[in-house]
Predict the structure.
Amino acid sequence: MIINFDRTAAYRCPGCGEIAFGDFSMFELSGNKSVSVQCSCGQSSLLIAPENKNNFIITIQCMVCDDEHKFSLPFQSLAKKDCTEYTCPNVMVGLVFIGRSEAVHSAVMHSEHYIEEVIAACGLEHTGKNGVTMLKALDKIQELSDREKLFCECGSNMIDVEVQEDNLILECCMCGASVTLTADMIRNSDFSHLEQLILKKKK
């Protein structure tokens, strides 16, 4: 019987929006050692650190809500489960996948298909690496609208939303004032914690 101690970790990078993959051996987590998986863009990393002899803590900056999440990974799950998946508690999107390589890649692919279905159900044409980012943005825009915190300086709260592959464009239906939010702005700014959004006409 051959026991495979190799594992794969995958996560959604909050910097570039891509899925980052990294391989490690369970032996690397022996004692008090930690394992870090860094995205090739260099803007983020995932940390797996021991909490005690029976449990690990996964730390990651969330690309969906911008918060730092900490997930509990039992040693038994790492040793025996094909793949353990963690989601953002604010928007139920697969965020971290850890386990055997084939199972992790399969889980990532399944998650991507799910996101594409959700985006299509929202009437959006574009998915790609910015799919989750745009879902995050639309969720926030809806929240601001529900709280009457999304409006134009002309006084109108009738705002049209257009989703493009790399941009989210908000336009006032009354005066034509608009604002363009790029995917990078949504990912890298404090967008999730925005309290209000006012459209202003360019002078």
